[in-house]
Specification:
single chain; 249 residues; alpha/beta; five-stranded parallel beta sheet; three-stranded antiparallel beta sheet; 9 helices; 8 strands; 17% strand; elongated
């Protein structure tokens, strides 16, 4: 019999999606977090685990079937194992799956232990969807930056990647009207095809947003030196510009 808490497998999700395992012993909270995940573009909930042992079992099964989870949202206070112990066992299994700790515990010692086990971000309950979304967007930016560096990397590239995880309020530095979710979606879209130049019209068509909206985000990325901008030759009338992901150092 299929476990109702296990959602469609990772293989059923779009290839570019970041597949998330939600671990929380409170059913309503777990369901809420799963819905939050699915609201963030590019993320999908692959399964929900009610305790540490179930989480470890799901992670092992997913690896063995070739559909591993990309990210774990891990509650620290589980009925069978502490979240720190779960994180340690995840690493003990040889899994490098990224982990974001979700907890109401504010004990600095616990936070330090979480960091020591390789937990990349820490989200304290209660939190808003905006705060939750920011953590996922930070993670997406971190992954996109790491992937864009290739097999070898540099100090500058690593600094850029880890700075995404250290960012405070993602929307604070954005111009009015721009939102982190869309910015991250556009950034990743460009980073996934670094040799390609896109106009605002082309980007808008591919992502399902208006040309005007696409141009606003592209101009912001250009001002932030995240993309290159140049006029597209051979167009009539008003000059059309094309944008390309800036090369990593």
């Amino acid at each position: 019999m299929t476990d109702p808490r296990v959602l469609p497998p990772a293989s059923a999700a779009k290839h570019e999606n970041i597949v998330v395992l939600v671990v929380d012993d409170e059913p309503e909270t777990a369901a809420s977090h799963a819905k939050y995940v699915n609201r963030v573009p590019g993320f999908t909930t692959g399964a929900i685990a009610a305790n540490g042992q179930e989480a470890l079992s799901l992670l092992s099964r997913a690896r063995n079937t070739g559909t591993p989870f990309d990210l774990v949202l891990l509650d620290m206070t589980l009925p069978d194992l502490h979240g720190i112990d779960v994180a340690k066992r995840i690493r003990g299994l040889g899994l490098t799956t990224d982990i974001i700790a979700i907890t109401a515990v504010r004990d600095l010692a616990v936070v330090r232990s979480a960091v020591a086990t390789g937990i990349t971000q820490y989200l304290i309950k209660p939190f808003t969807f905006a705060a939750f979304s920011e953590k996922l967007e930070n993670h997406r930016q971190f992954i996109a930056t790491m992937r864009s560096t290739g097999p070898d990397t540099s100090q500058a590239a690593l600094d850029t990647a880890f700075s995404a995880l250290r960012s405070s309020t993602a929307s604070a530095s954005l111009p009015k009207g721009l939102i982190p979710e869309t910015l991250a979606q556009i950034t990743e879209h460009l980073a996934s095809q670094p040799e390609r130049c896109l106009s605002a019209t082309e980007l808008g068509e591919e992502l399902g947003i208006s040309r005007v909206t696409a141009r606003r985000y592209l101009e912001h990325l250009f001002e932030s030196k995240a993309v290159l901008k140049q006029p597209r030759h051979g167009t009539r009338g008003r000059p059309e510009y094309e944008y390309q992901a800036a090369p990593r150092s």
